[in-house]
Specification:
376 residues, 3 domains, 3-stranded parallel β-sheet, globular
Length: 376
């Protein structure tokens, strides 16, 4: 078991003092952390900072487990990549080279350096923001040298260890946010890993603010208002906001099911009755195949490939397919699409000899393009 001294700090223990259950839990947690970093390299910012802060007071056996599990999963990841790509490669390094060294992520948008502080975190936390700020400030204060004197020995040590853990989480939050702020391309989803940490930091200030809570007190009314606001907001963003890009895929999926049933009933051959769809929308506007489900649906969308082979001094003039379409929708349709008379339902259709695409049965676009599509 862990040994805690009178100051609430863990002292060095030997391997024999650990139970198998404790070692198994530690190994599983390290494996999951390493696996998270392999899946998305930016998770390394969370786990590297927390690991460094944890290693400093860690015991020798904990350090061994930390390094062993990290190296084990790293080796396994390299081996799997070798088998898949048939060559030695390290995708996380390529990820960093693509996004940082070549700055190709900026091709998809840039934001101010303070974006996460002024927009990202408020969007992420909403009504929990003031409590998270208060909790972050409290956690960053210097740790007391001795346990609180008004608590029993064991409770005092737990309180000191809790403050130490919250301080680590607060430092991880600051480090993660500052590092991501140095990258020009920013999105709120990049700081999603901080949400559980920020909720932990905001818990104590929130509880302290609303407790005690007398009836018909202004704090009680405020708490009810906060709860109702969050319930309403969650319902709106889950069921109403940007609903169309989800519903259209459900519609297309059901259309494909109806076409398949009709073709089967009429004795059609395999592949007949498949619908054709074109998405004239900005990239990644819909969940795409995860909701279309059926691979037999012959669908295509405007692309937004990054300028991998374009020299750095020419990238400012690069326009992907989606950009070219929105620059001149009618001109793009004339140059890249056959006339509506070519509408077909057969699957895996190909364009004309001049490379133009046949007109699909279904066009998916946002409302502002309706006059253009009707006129064309």
């Amino acid at each position: 078991m862990d040994v805690v001294d009178d100051d609430g700090l863990r002292t060095s223990v030997s391997a024999g003092e650990y139970t198998l259950d404790e070692l198994a839990k530690l190994r599983r947690s390290m494996l999951l952390a390493a696996f998270a970093c392999i899946l998305r390299p930016t998770n390394l910012l969370v786990w590297l900072s927390s690991s460094v802060l944890t290693i400093l007071p860690a015991t020798s056996i904990e350090r061994k487990v930390l390094f062993r599990e990290a190296i084990l999963l790293l080796a396994l990841s390299i081996l799997v990549d070798r088998l898949y790509y048939q060559t030695w490669t390290f995708p996380p390094l390529r990820f960093l080279y693509f996004n940082i060294a070549q700055s190709l992520a900026a091709f998809y948008g840039k934001n101010r350096w303070d974006y996460y502080f002024t927009e990202g975190l408020p969007l992420l936390l909403t009504t929990a923001l003031p409590f998270a700020v208060a909790g972050l400030w409290q956690a960053l204060q210097p740790l007391p040298q001795h346990p609180p004197p008004n608590l029993p020995g064991s409770e005092a040590r737990k309180a000191l260890l809790s403050k130490s853990a919250l301080r680590v989480l607060a430092l991880v939050t600051v480090f993660f946010t500052v590092v991501l702020s140095l990258v020009s391309h920013k999105e709120v989803r990049f700081i999603y890993p901080l949400l559980p940490i920020l909720h932990l930091l905001s818990a104590h200030p929130l509880a302290a603010f609303f407790r005690p809570l007398p009836k018909l007190h202004w704090k009680a009314l405020l708490l009810v208002a906060v709860l109702l606001f969050n319930i309403g907001l969650s319902q709106y963003v889950s069921l109403v906001h940007q609903r169309g890009v989800i519903d259209v895929l459900s519609f297309l999926r059901h259309e494909q099911e109806a076409e398949t049933e009709t073709a089967t009933a009429n004795g059609g051959a395999h592949g007949q009755g498949n619908i054709t769809v074109a998405f004239l929308m900005p990239c990644h506007s819909t969940p795409w195949r995860s909701h279309l489900v059926y691979p037999s649906i012959d669908a295509w969308a405007l692309t937004c490939e990054p300028p991998l082979d374009v020299p750095l001094d020419q990238r400012h003039a690069y326009r992907d397919e989606a950009d070219q379409f929105y620059d001149d929708p009618e001109g793009w349709l004339s140059a890249n699409m056959q006339g509506p008379a070519t509408t077909i339902a057969a699957t895996k259709s190909h364009g004309a000899g001049d490379g133009r695409r046949p007109w699909p049965r279904y066009l998916v676009f946002f409302e502002q393009l309706e006059p253009t599509s009707v006129a064309w």
